[in-house]
Amino acid sequence: xAATKILVYSLLFAFSLSCFAQETTNRIExxxxxxxxxxxxxxxxxxxxxxxxxxxANGHFLAGIWFDKIPEKTLVWSANRDDPAQMGSxxxxxxxxxxxxxxxxxxxxxIDNSTFTSSALLQDKGNLVLLDSSSKIIWESFDSPTDxxxxxxxxxxxxxxxxxxxxxxxxxxxxxxxxxQMDGNLVLSAFRFADRGYWNSITAGKKNVSLVxxxxxxxxxxxxxTGIVSSMTTEVxxxxxxYYHRATITDRGNLQQWVYNKRGGNRWTLVWQRITEPCxxxxxxxxxxxxxxxxxxxxxxxxxxxxxxxxxxxxxRGCYPNVMVDFCDANxxxxxxxxxxxxxxxxxxxxxxxxxHFRTTDVNECEKAVMDDCLCAAGVWYDxxxxxKRLPLLNARRSYPSTNDRVAFIKVSQMxxxxxxxxxSPSRVVLLASLLSCSVLALIFGITVVYNHxxxxxxxxxQQSAKPKSVEIxxxxxxxxxxxxxxxxxxxxxxxxxxxxxxxxxLTLDGKEVEVAVKQLEKVIEQGDKDFLTEVQVIGLTHxxxxxxLIGFCNEHKHRLLVYELMKNGTLSSFLFADxxxxxxxxxxxxFGIARGLLYLHEECEPQIIHCDIKPQNVLLDNNCKxxxxxFGLAKLLKKDQTRTSTVVRGTMGYMAPEWLKNVPVTxxxxxxxxxxxxxxxxxxxxxxxxxxxxEELLQVDEGTQVEDMILVDWVLCCVKAGNLRSIVxxxxxxxxxxxxxxxxxxxxxxxxxxxxxxxxxxxxxxQMLEGTVEVGVPPEVVAQIS
Length: 787
Known about the structure:
Elements: H1 2-23, E1 28-29, E2 33-35, E3 41-43, E4 49-55, E5 61-67, E6 75-78, E7 90-93, E8 99-102, E9 108-112, E10 119-122, E11 128-131, E12 137-140, E13 148-150, E14 154-155, E15 160-166, E16 170-180, E17 186-190, E18 196-200, E19 210-213, E20 220-224, E21 227-231, E22 243-249, E23 255-261, E24 269-273, E25 289-292, E26 300-303, E27 307-309, E28 319-321, E29 337-343, E30 345-347, E31 354-359, H2 363-372, E32 378-382, E33 385-389, E34 396-398, E35 406-413, H3 414-424, H4 428-435, H5 437-452, H6 457-466, E36 476-477, H7 480-486, E37 493-496, E38 500-509, E39 512-521, H8 529-540, E40 550-556, E41 559-565, H9 572-576, H10 584-604, E42 619-621, E43 627-629, H11 669-684, E44 699-702, E45 705-707, H12 712-722, H13 725-728, H14 733-736, H15 739-752, H16 763-771, H17 780-786
Parallel strand pairs: 25-34, 36-40
Antiparallel strand pairs: 1-10, 2-7, 3-4, 4-5, 5-6, 7-8, 8-9, 10-11, 11-12, 13-22, 14-19, 15-16, 16-17, 17-18, 19-20, 20-21, 22-23, 23-24, 25-26, 27-28, 29-35, 30-34, 31-33, 32-33, 32-35, 37-38, 38-39, 39-41, 40-41, 42-43, 44-45
């Protein structure tokens, strides 16, 4: 076996040596550059590959590598998949030896920041390399793949491939990942859903595992220290050199190998794929989606009963409930709910979604158990076992071939089913119209003539522009006049921010007067109605008890307003920093509520939402003083100069993660950082910065050590280091009685504010730590302080 592995690598090495002498003639010298839109590129010696600006359908560009000799110029690597460049952007191999992408607005991204580069080269195998003065490779694109691997490429342990978001339409990072984990397993996972894997190579425990795309055989192997562990590909067309080869993780979560005949071929041909049953791929049809694939080739996505598609044009994006319902509402009765039965269907096994299991040979007993458990949203009966599922519902699928040995139960509200029937069934008016269609053709013709007559056009256009547009979700479109009257001509202002003013008002909804908060946006996107409505849809499709509910909107002329439920108890800031006593248990409950709301935004709603401005002013308290996050999803509604770009930061100083100030991608971990600061504020009842303390005496934290306690985070770190947390809460008997939890929550807050975002926990792990199901160790920031 060891000899086999040596053979695999020696073949790769021999090929690279034979090609290198020819490739040296295509060196890219220091000072070379490429401009987006100029059609210039750096070619490999054979001309098979090119590096330059790959044009996208929206007019933007990716700095990347593609197959260049075929009509279908297929992209295989890019340096800026999540930050497309515009016309006029450049890639430069600077005189200092750095490979730099410079956007048209002047922002620089270092593809490689080495200063030892003497030249560059695009190899015939599609690998862009930087070379030092002795022609030694000091950087290569093969070391940082995107979604594709090529012949001769080796993926060592720790390497990850990420799918595109939407095939050849959207090349940004998608939701699927191929990873060679450090335990030796090769894993396919839906990484945006708590790293839920749906296939692995079962090679855990082996050392130095790699995935090799062999140059001489065009087969993919999993190898370790002993040799070939497993052959992924079984057969490819020959002779190998007559074909182009690539392996890609697709936007459907599959790892596939493709070939393209160099001699007269006109398309890529699939020769191998890892997943042969596409419905086993996690979240392939999104949240509340239902997957079926009779031929195990094409995926058919639709919604579970009681749910409707987020995007009718893209069913795989998932679904939303027709009617939001709380199954545990004390005011509800059994008649409010129903069980929808789907034969020959189930949910993929998922420890995160499974509520409980019990053995029963009676399918009706399983159905009753689903109905009776208010925490249960669905269930599956299979192999004499009933499995109850919690929300959100993921990975529902039809089983093939049909065996009728499993049944899925979906609990829905009766009102939700009625709403769905309204959408799915033709109304009586439509049926009557179809019967009378012949008799009304003349009338339709007459109306059409009048409508299109030049004399009527100005009046018709005026009426259309004044009418508020509706969104195909459960949101009400209000006119500007309605909201003006509801807010008493916008006189009852209750808040103002950098981009909006908030007023209270009263609206009549479903025959009842409802108090609302009307947010008037002042710096909104300029692209027009379509973009505004798209982003309102995203906000409107979020449903969680710890998020402020959006009721409706106004999109009339230049007026952009959002109508929310009114939170009568104001902001967390007002509650937290008031003089009166704040219950310790209530503060814990608030922290949990915020964490659950953020977890929903990050992992459970589709698409994922990063809040970008978590702070006490953006957490509101309802009538029962429950915490609800406000202003989520607003980032994309603001003008570009107000949102996060590569040059402008977003958020509030003190709560802002350090990566905002660096030229690095921003992820959901920025919200985790902000939550960490907020958590410390909640448990210490202190603002993150208290300027009045600058003139006070320094705080004595231990013998010989003093610290100015103006900045909360620094103060807490010093207190933890000195081990005197108990002494600073001696005045609070509630906290002293629950000191272990107080100490744990302090540590969780410090974990969240790690300067390195990769060390911060996800919000799912934060909740597990708060619940005590995951051990809370010593945060790195504390270790650094102590050392």
